[in-house]
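pinging the channel bc i need a second pair of eyes. not urgent but kinda urgent?? the chain im working w is below, pasted from the shared doc
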Amino acid sequence: MKSFAFIVNPVTIKQLKDFWPTLKLVPDFLIAPSLKNLAPFKVLPIKKIRSIQGKEIEGYFIICPLISKHPGRLDNGFVLDRTLSAIQLAGSLNVGIIGLSGHSSLLTDKGYTIGKTLKIPVTAGSSFTAWSIFEAIYRVAKVKNINLKECKLAVINASGSLGSLCSRKLSDYVRRIVINGPERDKLERLKENIAQLSPVEVIIEEDIDKAVKDADIVINANISREPAFEMRKLKPNTIFCNISSFSAATEKTSLRNDITAVLGGLIKLPYSDSRINTGLPKDIIPASLAETMLLTFEERFVSYSSGENINLDQLEEIADIAVQHGFEVWLPEAPVL
């Protein structure tokens, strides 16, 4: 049976304890400063994942104790070392492909060629995540009778691969795009790329509060980070899309009541016989994990969403593959009609 591995960086200490029950005996205040000294990994098998085609695959969660809610506390060198070790462990399990999440997926934006180094296909799931965000915004706008062509879109961390994909994909649907991120040179290249795709107006704004001001739609493409802007800067009725980190089931609960909060990047499995503990409702998984599964079903053992130069055609392709296997974008507030 074809198999995959997925490296999970827990979002919170609570989730780390859910994955690692023996840690429940340890107080939180002792765990946080000891993350670097914890045993590097725990492997959890995932069995009997089936598609509507009747195909079946299996996989492994490799739990890496790097709490992704606090990326600034760990330097990239340490994260890279842990990630490479986790990939090596996955390789020993004879898997066909490895999916990355949290801290690990952020490394692909830094230019690390992890897959090439270890000769194992690696995907960060950016293609399917970006598609799911596009579909979520499109469906919410339809439910609320919002004309996207009249909307101003702001993308936070557009200099990252996921933010870039979202900006490019939505460029043909909105009136204006404001792109924000820490790397000006990447934003300039993104602006040029969008100009080749669409006549939409693109504005680079390095001040994050100014970037979201007066926006009709805001995408926070900072995976594993809370929004870095003040929520009061958003105007009423803004559609705010936060990207779901692994197990981030409650991220939108603290938002203002006059904002339409969307938790993007979530996928519903057609059915499964194993309990996949994501902290989300049953059979709901992050798109990054779903992409890894879909590539395994198709036996497409290639580094699909890795690095910064991901072709937009891949979004359409992975969406088509998802339909073939019965994977659906999960958005209860805007169901498919």
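so DSSP finds eleven helices and 15 strands in the chain. and The CA atoms of residues 298 and 321 lie 8 Å apart. — does that match what u expected or am i reading it wrong
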